[in-house]
Amino acid sequence: MKQTEVYILSGFLGSGKTTLLKKLLKAEKESGRKVAVLMNELGKVSIDSDEVNDDVPLKELLGGCICCTIQDKLEAQLQELLITHQPDCIYIETTGAAHPVETLDAVLSPLFATQLHVKGILTVVDGRLWLERRTYSPQIQQLISEQIRHADLIVINKSDELSEGEKILITTGIQSLNEKAIVILTTYSNVSIKQIQSLSYEKKPHLNKSHVENDLKLSTFVYSFSKAVDLDAFENFLQALPDTIYRIKGYVKFSSTSFPYLFQFSYGMPIYIKEEMNMPLNLVFIGENILWDEISSKLEELEKKQV
Ligand SMILES: Nc1nc2c(ncn2[C@@H]2O[C@H](COP(=O)(O)OP(=O)(O)OP(=O)(O)O)[C@@H](O)[C@H]2O)c(=O)[nH]1
């Protein structure tokens, strides 16, 4: 019986998992393989799924982490992908707060023992974040370390933001946490598909687990704009945000433009990409110990200010 290969994409919020997924999907398609995707997001609204082409079978698990809260749903979604599409491989993109082993446990259900072959855990690390990891809460530091320790392949990403000395420091530091993993330095998660397809999953010892549902105080919030806002006022809003908002993604429309922008914000760095059609104006926020009502009031003020 043909087994479907499974790859688990792990890595902290905003490290470059979706960027990696997009590249792998393109390469898999070019090599003639039938691919399916299972995407898990903490927020109740999906943004990343827009990045996956319509011809790729996609299932989404929103509003929680695969690891425990929605494990049953994961099994149902996997079953449906297998029955309906019989893919050669399935890529599972986990939330940035997920412990990769718990996601793996969910995939290794006896239900799929003969159908799925787990090929590996790929962990993406934001190089700059790794250097600055001590400024994050101990739980987040632990989660990032465990995502690294359990990986079969580690992608140290955003190397365009690193000096040569920093690249060496990060690579040696990360390799010492997981000597068996393949470690590669990339910009925009540029990894060769051959390297991915030749992976073989290796069981690692179980370590302590940090997880969004218990130790981590990560929470999410979705704001839906009803109209366009002023760009300068929006940038002022961003600058005043607490440091513990780690990720914002979604669509925002400015007074001066006809279509919205895809907005990405990780570790204080905003990126705007112009859309060519209307999109639902939802912004998903992820942060630690944040009073979301306050953020919501500020956004409402922004909408009132609109010229
Ligand atoms: N400068 C730079 N930016 C990058 C690189 N790779 C990805 N990015 C940007 O970083 C942001 C986050 O990338 P994603 O691929 O969405 O990260 P993610 O891990 O899927 O994020 P979550 O799903 O929220 O956890 C996006 O704006 C990317 O364009 C890189 O190598 N260099």
UniProtKB/TrEMBL annotation:
Record flagged with keyword Hydrolase: yes
Entries under SUPFAM superfamilies matching the protein: Hypothetical protein YjiA, C-terminal domain, P-loop containing nucleoside triphosphate hydrolases
InterPro entries, per the entry: CobW-likC_sf, CobW-like_C, CobW/HypB/UreG_nucleotide-bd, P-loop_NTPase, Zinc-reg_GTPase_activator
Known catalytic reactions: GTP + H2O = GDP + phosphate + H(+)
Entry keyword annotation includes ATP-binding: no
Source superkingdom: Bacteria
SMART domains to which the protein is assigned, alphabetical: CobW_C
Pfam families named among the record's database cross-references: cobW, CobW_C
Residues of the CobW C-terminal domain: 218-303
Keywords: Chaperone, Hydrolase, Nucleotide-binding
UniProt family annotation: Belongs to the SIMIBI class G3E GTPase family. ZNG1 subfamily.
Listed name of the protein: CobW family GTP-binding protein
Organism of this sequence: Robertmurraya beringensis
Lineage: Bacteria, Bacillati, Bacillota, Bacilli, Bacillales
